[in-house]
């Protein structure tokens, strides 16, 4: 595409989008006058969760996306705009806020059309522009093999400020996986493999089981199609359980009532991937085993879950070694529940999950619960008097005295109830990152310790490993990848502790530093006095599993080489070289407006970032670029500011 024409087209898109948006006003039921309104289902789904949502933003975003993607088609032959619309629909069904849905509708415009991020910021505000920027990929054709790693790195950094970046990316990938049949077998395998390695674990860490189940299943269907079909045949036989499950549920409810536990009991079937994981992936023989499973939802405090457990074990004999307490020791993805397996009638094994209604909401929706149920994110001592507080003006001074962990969800809840959706969504995003995502903060700290995007992605994949263990050391509960050793524990306590590590005990007994740890181990690490350490040792690299230890040791024992600069670093270098060349000619620029027009003079570079990286990599001379820029400023048309 000719970039000069593209820049001109951007203004045209912006003006046309606004004009068409103004022409399509919804009626009282939120419908457009057009009989074939493509946004109707999206609006209906969004308002079913957020009845007071202002959907005018969604309609305007769709009109802009439709205009920007005009003439573009997916590999399936469908108009391209059907993809962002489907992504927004997935997010609406999850219960995300209006801002996120607008960003989803626009998420490919900056990457694939002439529509500029600056124009989007002027049209839709900083929040939407930030989310779209967060999911915009670096082009491999211009940034080479490092582009994919840099894209992942950028997405994680952006998510550190607003987790909705990751939620949009997951919905985007889910729709792409749903329509993967339009691609070649090689592309299907590559995309499904990348999804399994990074995006499925990210979805798990965010706790969005409602999204993760389908994502896991569709990945399995592309990577293991024959096994998937065999599991599907087993699942089709579940109808034979209906009478058995009804009897089990009735018996469980009777036992709970006898122990005065207010709870409901429901079937909780496994999906394809979990059956594969627990049978086929462990080397067990086919056909896969699909064990009956129920969930007990307790209406009361979490202590009632243990009372319910006693009632279930009083009814049926528990299977030894099959009890797990994820309430006292929760997972790192908001998952809390009790797991037990009992022998039911005819010694049929039955899996039983026990959790409160609040826990079940968090299990199902994870981080999305902050947006789907904003008022329920408050503790009882705040949620109960909230209605009374809303009767009068909420005292802002009192809100400011609360800690962030309470103030942000409170402001979010108030925003939802009073109709200030932007305040609500921003507060919910901040609260989610503050309260729920310790693992994300740890990953961002890891990113700050490395300049190499490829190394960061390798460490991220390790950190996202599905199998993890929890060990205790010096009073701290440490979450580590399975197979970690006391060396990993030492480096989790600090790099100085790791470097001086000289011995360890596991559960009170001396053990080699290379001993693999088990879930629940109590570890004590002994270190040499400062200045007298003999380590670390290169061979430790063969025994560490945690990203922090791996990164430190690889850096310590790596061969000297020039550090790989990130794309952000190269953009900064290119900008500095351009500025220096301008100063040599006694010229300067107040902003990037003329730089964006300069891009049109170099058709090989589609945007300003690509041009600046080319200058940093010496593929384009800064002097050549400045010569063109000066000629453009002195002889070219006056720049036009983005339309407002």
Automatic annotation (TrEMBL):
SMART domains, A to Z: HDc, RelA_SpoT
GO cellular component: plasma membrane
Domain HD: 80-177
The protein's enzyme class: transferase
GO molecular function: GTP diphosphokinase activity; kinase activity
Pfam families: HD_4, RelA_SpoT, TGS
GO biological process: guanosine tetraphosphate metabolic process
Enzyme Commission code(s) on record: 2.7.6.5
Sequence similarity: Belongs to the RelA/SpoT family.
Protein name per UniProt: GTP pyrophosphokinase
Organism classification: Bacteria, Bacillati, Actinomycetota, Actinomycetes, Micromonosporales
């Amino acid at each position: 595409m000719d970039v000069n024409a593209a820049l001109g087209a951007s203004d045209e898109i912006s003006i046309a989008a606004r004009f068409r948006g103004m022409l399509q006003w919804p009626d009282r039921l939120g419908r457009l006058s057009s009989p074939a309104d493509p946004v109707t289902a999206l609006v209906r789904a969004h308002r079913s969760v957020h009845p007071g949502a202002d959907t005018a933003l969604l309609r305007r975003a769709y009109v802009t996306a439709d205009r920007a993607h005009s003439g573009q088609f997916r590999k399936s032959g469908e108009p391209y705009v059907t993809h962002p619309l489907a992504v927004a629909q997935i997010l609406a069904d999850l219960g995300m806020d209006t801002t996120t849905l607008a960003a989803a509708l626009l998420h490919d415009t900056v990457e694939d059309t002439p529509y500029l991020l600056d124009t989007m910021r002027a049209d839709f505000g900083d929040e939407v522009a930030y989310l779209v920027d967060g999911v915009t990929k670096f082009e491999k054709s211009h940034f080479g093999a490092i582009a994919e790693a840099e894209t992942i790195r950028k997405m994680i950094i952006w998510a550190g400020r607003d987790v909705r970046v990751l939620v949009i990316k997951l919905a985007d990938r889910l729709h792409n996986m749903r329509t993967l049949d339009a691609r070649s077998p090689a592309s299907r395998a590559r995309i499904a493999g990348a999804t399994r390695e990074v995006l499925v674990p990210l979805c798990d860490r965010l706790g969005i089981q409602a999204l993760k189940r389908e994502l896991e299943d569709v990945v399995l269907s592309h990577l293991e199609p024959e096994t998937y079909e065999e599991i599907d045949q087993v699942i089709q036989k579940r109808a034979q359980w209906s009478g058995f499950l009804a009897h089990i549920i009735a018996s469980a409810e009777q036992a709970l009532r006898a122990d005065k536990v207010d709870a409901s009991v429901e079937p909780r079937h496994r999906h394809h991937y979990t059956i594969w994981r627990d049978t086929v992936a462990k080397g067990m023989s086919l056909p896969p085993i699909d064990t009956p499973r129920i969930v007990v939802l307790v209406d009361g405090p979490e202590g009632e879950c243990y009372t319910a457990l006693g009632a279930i074990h009083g009814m049926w004999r528990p299977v030894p070694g099959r009890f797990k307490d994820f309430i006292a020791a929760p997972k790192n993805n908001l998952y809390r529940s009790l797991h037990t397996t009992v022998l039911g009638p005819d010694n049929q094994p039955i899996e039983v999950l026990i959790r409160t209604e609040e826990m079940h909401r968090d299990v199902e929706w994870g981080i999305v619960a902050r947006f789907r149920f904003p008022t329920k994110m408050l503790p009882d001592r705040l949620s109960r008097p909230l209605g009374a507080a809303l009767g009068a003006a909420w005292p802002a001074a009192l809100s400011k005295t609360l800690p962030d962990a309470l103030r942000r969800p409170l402001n979010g809840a108030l925003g939802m109830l009073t109709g200030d959706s932007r305040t609500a969504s921003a507060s919910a995003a901040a609260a989610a990152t503050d309260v729920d995502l310790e693992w994300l903060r740890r990953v961002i700290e890891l990113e700050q310790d490395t300049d190499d995007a490829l190394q960061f992605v390798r460490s991220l994949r390790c950190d996202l490993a599905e199998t993890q263990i929890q060990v205790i050391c010096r009073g701290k509960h440490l979450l580590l990848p399975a197979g970690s050793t006391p060396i990993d524990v030492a480096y989790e306590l600090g790099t100085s502790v790791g470097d001086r590590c000289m011995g360890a005990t596991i559960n009170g007994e001396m053990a080699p530093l290379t001993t693999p740890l088990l879930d629940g181990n109590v570890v004590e690490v002994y270190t040499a006095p400062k200045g007298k350490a003999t380590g670390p040792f290169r061979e430790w690299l063969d025994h560490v599993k945690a990203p922090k230890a791996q990164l430190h040791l690889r850096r310590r024992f790596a061969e000297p080489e020039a550090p790989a600069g990130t794309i952000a670093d190269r953009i900064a270098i290119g900008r500095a070289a351009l500025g220096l060349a301008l100063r040599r000619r006694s010229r300067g620029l107040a902003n990037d407006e003329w730089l964006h027009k300069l891009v049109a003079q170099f058709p090989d570079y589609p945007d300003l970032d690509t041009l600046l990286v080319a200058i940093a990599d010496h593929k384009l001379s800064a002097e050549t670029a400045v010569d063109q820029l000066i000629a453009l400023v002195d002889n070219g048309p006056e720049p036009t500011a983005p339309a407002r």
